[in-house]
Design a protein that fits this description.
Length: about 270
C-alpha cells in the first residue's frame, strides 16, 4: 500500500485493507483460508479474520462447505456486473473482439491496471481453435508484456509514476526500466498504433502478444485490448503484418461506435 496515501487524512485504511482481501483471490483458487489471505496481502492474520468475517457477513465473501475457506460471494458478483454494465464500451467491444478472435485464431483480451499489475477483465476465445490458458482474473506484470508496456506508454505522467510505485520493482520494473518501456511503447503507438514487446524479454516464453491502448471517456485511465497466442501460431511477422493492424482497426471501430476521436493523440502520450 502506498505510504503517501496512508498519510492522507482522506484515506480510509480499513476500507483499503478490506479491498486488498478481495483482490487476493485468483481464478484458480479453491477457496482461501485466513492464513493464505494473510500471506498474499501482508496483513496480520488477526486483521484478516476481522475483515473476512465482515465481508462474509455482507455477502462479498462466502464460506465453502467446510466453513474454513472463503470464496467471492454473490454481492461481489453483483457489484462486478453493475460496474461492467455501467461502462458502455465493454458491451460494445464484445462482438468486435469475438470476431477478431475468430478471424485471427488468437485469444483476445481486455485488461485494466490493477495497482502494480495488469488485470484481465474480459476474454474472447476463438471458436474451434485451442487458445492460451489465460482467464479473467489473472494478473500480468507490467514488465515483459505487450499489454503492460502499452499501458505504461498510454498512462498520463502522474498515472505512470503511480503505476511504477505500485509495481515496486516487480519482475525488474525499476524506474529506469519503466521509462525505457514507456518510451518504446509510445514510439510504437505513434508509428504503428500497436505495441509488440520483444519476445526475448517477454515474461513467459510460450506467449506472443500485440496490444492497443484505448481511452474511454467513461474512465480516467486507459485500458488495453490485446491478442495473444503461442509463438508457433503468432510469429512476430504475423503480429506486425496481420494481427496488429486488425486489432488496431477493431479498436478504431469501437472508437467510432462511441463517437470518439480516432486514436490516442500526442497530447495523450
Amino acid at each position: 500500500m502506498d505510504g503517501d496515501l496512508e498519510k492522507d487524512r482522506r484515506f480510509a485504511t480499513t476500507l483499503a485493507r478490506g479491498l486488498s482481501v478481495l483482490r487476493a483471490f485468483r481464478p484458480s483458487d479453491d477457496g482461501l483460508g485466513n492464513a493464505e489471505i494473510s500471506d498474499r496481502t501482508g496483513l496480520p492474520k488477526s486483521t484478516v479474520s476481522r475483515l473476512t468475517f465482515t465481508l462474509q457477513s455482507l455477502g462479498y465473501l462466502t464460506h465453502t462447505r467446510r466453513h474454513d475457506r472463503y470464496r467471492p460471494g454473490p454481492a461481489l458478483l453483483a457489484l462486478g456486473n453493475m460496474a461492467s454494465a455501467s461502462l458502455s464500451f465493454v458491451d460494445l467491444s464484445g462482438p468486435l473482439m469475438q470476431r477478431l478472435a475468430d478471424e485471427t485464431g488468437t485469444l483476445s483480451l481486455l485488461l485494466v491496471r490493477d495497482a502494480g499489475k495488469m488485470l484481465i477483465v474480459k476474454t474472447w476465445r476463438p471458436r474451434g481453435v485451442a487458445s492460451l490458458w489465460l482467464e479473467v482474473g489473472h494478473r500480468l506484470p507490467f514488465n515483459g508484456t505487450s499489454s503492460g508496456h502499452a499501458m505504461l506508454g498510454a498512462l498520463p505522467v502522474d498515472g505512470f509514476a503511480q503505476a511504477v510505485r505500485d509495481a515496486a520493482g516487480d519482475r525488474g520494473l525499476t524506474p529506469d526500466q519503466a521509462h525505457v518501456n514507456r518510451d518504446l511503447a509510445q514510439s510504437q503507438i505513434q508509428t504503428r498504433g500497436y505495441v509488440i514487446t520483444d519476445p526475448d524479454s517477454y515474461f513467459a516464453a510460450n506467449i506472443h502478444a500485440v496490444a492497443v491502448p484505448f481511452q474511454s471517456r467513461e474512465l480516467g485511465d486507459p485500458v488495453v485490448f490485446t491478442c495473444g497466442a503461442m509463438p508457433e501460431a503468432l510469429s512476430v511477422a504475423r503480429m506486425r503484418e496481420e494481427v496488429g493492424p486488425k486489432l488496431l482497426q477493431t479498436v478504431r471501430d469501437l472508437e467510432r461506435m462511441m463517437g470518439q476521436s480516432s486514436g490516442m493523440s500526442a497530447h495523450d502520450l
